[in-house]
């Protein structure tokens, strides 16, 4: 929308969207200028990015141990690191840095897995509220002694449920939480929880109406484990435990079947597609195009630290690349006609939608679009930023300009970020 005008209300929501050349645009621009409220920006303005899968305590692990199998990576690196969040000061230092870094990269909304520590999880919620990042924050629940180390698991179902309630109560009681942060029920994944725990969390989800997040059919091992233990798919198991609802976001879903997709679409849940971490640990490419065609709600996730980048720009790029690899196949020894899955590719504009409006829709939050009633969560991309990676040559169409930004911009090109109409990291500076 070249030359467009957005009117931002006192509540931080978009009141009007005016196209250049319209009478409404001229009138509103004149009135705003006379009142000293007209802000002119060059470069590109895009909606804030929504990351649907972040393991917050794994931020210090970013880039480490990625040559290991998932089970080794978890036991050797992840669980010992997450256990350190019993230290509230350590949690505070990591989480404040994480939230600031994600905001600087344009992630204005995030769905967080925390650790199993109540106080540390509350620190994450506090960090989001103080920095004005929209977030859903969940204390991880894991009680299965067969899959969780002795030093890092819930001692009982009662402990897991009580801790989840305690975090939700803290979030609700925070005096500055005017809708910035919500709680989310977070069984780590089916193997990490006993049947009794899953049943109790499903009951809690029905009682409080909270969002639910977990991993689903991420890898060959996870799929086979669920089939062996429950006698049916992860999706069916989650549904039977009451954990598959309109408020559910499932990370990965690489091995969900067509019938799983149908069930998910009926329940209204969503998938957090994590293309970068899938390349490391998931053994497969998520059938994104098939899920979208079946009406499944999908957004994108970085899945740090399984994904070695916290950039949602990177997630968009990998979404396109992974879909093309699924379409074309990757084994050169197979005939071209047998190598891939035709019709699986998506383009960058689809990936951009998933990283913005798709993520907002998955969370039922009014974010990710420039439309009346939406929160003004946005970022400015400066193509000419001195340390940036964009290069323009003067002949780009509007479509080419956006595509170039999405494919080539770096964090240095993101010069301003707003949530609810106020610039982040700069105090209460209005847009």
TrEMBL record:
Gene3D superfamilies: Metal-dependent hydrolases, Urease, subunit C, domain 1. The keyword Zinc applies. Its cofactor is Zn(2+). It holds the Pfam family Amidohydro_1. InterPro entries: Amidohydro-rel (IPR006680), Metal-dep_hydrolase_composite (IPR011059), Metal_Hydrolase (IPR032466), Metallo-dep_hydrolases (IPR051607). Keywords: Hydrolase, Metal-binding, Zinc. GO terms for molecular function: guanine deaminase activity; zinc ion binding. The keyword Hydrolase applies. This is Amidohydrolase family protein. One of its GO terms (biological process) is guanine metabolic process. Residues 45-422 form the Amidohydrolase-related domain. Coiled coil: none annotated. GO terms for cellular component: cytosol.
